[in-house]
Amino acid sequence: MASLNPFLLAAVVPDPDPRLLPLLRSQPALASAQDAHGYSLLHAAASYNHVNLLRLLVNEFHVDVNLTDEDGETCLFVAESVEVARCLVEELRVDVNVKNDEDTIAADKIESEQDFPEVAAYLKVHAGVSTSSTSAGNVSSVNGAQDPPALPPNVTINVNSSTEDTPELAQEPDPEFRRRIEELAGRENFHTDEGQRELRDLITDAVRGVGNEERDVRRRLG
Fold it and tell me: For residues 67 and 84, what is the distance between their CA atoms, to the nearest angstrom?
């Protein structure tokens, strides 16, 4: 097992190579190992959507969930699914407000790259970050609730206390979508699991409406 590369074993999909866990248990120090660029098994697990591996690394091998790479980024910066983001934030307690070397938190970086809008929207809520005016319009609190999270590219909303202001889509406004996002933003259960599920449904609808662009693959080990 000494010749096995744990990073390559973790990069296997849909599940990590079965030789990885025995390797880590025989050499626990490998669980916290980083390559020359600071890439860790946490980063690999987050990027490849290996939720159970994330749990094992943190809970069994006691790897620091806030371990950063050479760019000052935790594994949260490479999360590509809401499931991974939720595990890191709600279970493993990653710090959502860690800033990389460009002084940017994960929510803002993922949003700017426009690859995973649902992940960005989820992180915006948990980081307590207001939606930027350049990517999601001007968003204000509704009934004292926290600002709604950012929507996908090409979609903007405006939710204000003024009765004449309504959510607004950048392209071909959908009255039903406007009504749903305004209603959801004003509800008391906006930050509950049920509210977050409805938010993800809205985001998915918006993404399907505006289409998806080709994306550059994040740094991974082939």
Answer: 16
